[in-house]
Amino acid sequence: MPTCSLLPPENGEDQSSHDRHVERMKTEWKEQKHPSKQLTKSLMKRSYPLRRKTIMDKVIPVPQLLKEYPGLRDPDELIREFSRVISREILPSVKDEWVKMVSKIIEVSRDETEGEPVIDQLFEDFGIELMEEDLGVQTIVAICCIYRLVPDPRIRVDLSKVVTFVDDGSTEDVVKQLPMAQPCIVVKRDEENKLQSALVVERSILCVVPPELAAIHLLGAFNIFYMHYTEGCSNFYAALESILLGCNKPGRKTRLAAFLGRLGYSNEE
User: Fold this and answer.
1) Which of 85, 110, 135, 193 has the smallest number of Cβ neighbours within 10 A?
2) Is 9 helix (H, G, I), strand (E, B) or coil?
């Protein structure tokens, strides 16, 4: 379970006002081809306390939550919701920290796998170069590298638990066949051969997200929907928490601690 999920502060809204905000949001998203981002932002903020309490108190399928709060399909709103959950602004500080670390993660990965071209082979068929300068590509590469370098003990490595690459066919068909319901990222090349990424939750595409923000959206989804981390991915998400949020300190002699140490993160209080 995410370690940074917090209960919401009270903001003066009661059930009646919350319900009005929700109904207005649902109407906006139903009637408008391009719902107002400013209105959605306001209604999502005002409906947050009771929404958060409901999510943490009850087990509600994500599709049901999306019907009630369609603003959660907006990638910008997901970032704001993540910020509300952890009581900290995600942009620009968290993104800046990721940008600072992403190339270093890849460099550490290349050093760790020298003589064992696992990482290189991972992207060969998909046409990805490890040191491409595009931040979106680097982010997808770095996510895969973290997962490969800090696997959970005695768990078979299965990259599709974190990132799935769609070579041919329908993305929707691939998503339906995913081995788990927890959030993950699905990546595909568009007609112009540009990398496109989508956030998937409960085997359904939640929204298309910028590849450079994929790591933030991925971690954010677990916090927003208050879901247990995917089995076999505890170390991976602990690493993301440490890199993005600084709220996880692994044991000193673990593989995770060694990896974070190579990135420059200290385990000292």
Assistant:
1) 193
2) coil
pLDDT score recorded for residue 7? 64
Q: What is the pLDDT of residue 21?
A: 96
Q: Over the stretch 141-164, which tens digit does the pLDDT of each residue have?
A: 899 989 988 989 888 888 889 999
pLDDT over 70 at 45, yes or no: yes
Identify whether 70 is preceded by a cis peptide bond (ω within 30 of 0): no
For the stretch 56-71, pLDDT in tens is 998 899 999 999 999 9
Q: What angle do CA 188, 189, 191 make, to 5 degrees?
A: 135
For residues 36 and 58, give the distance between their C-alpha atoms in angstroms, rounded to a whole number: 29
Tell which residue, 99, 95, 107, 93, has the closest CA to residue 262: 107
HSE-CB for 178 with a 13 A CA cutoff:
27
CA-to-CA dists, residue 252 to 72, 109, 249, 264, angstroms? 38, 20, 9, 14
Sequence-distant (6+) residues with CB within 8 A of 136 are 195, 197, 210, 211, 212, 214
DSSP 228: P
Q: Name the residue ranges covered by the structural domains of the chain.
A: 15-86
DSSP-assigned letter for residue 254: S
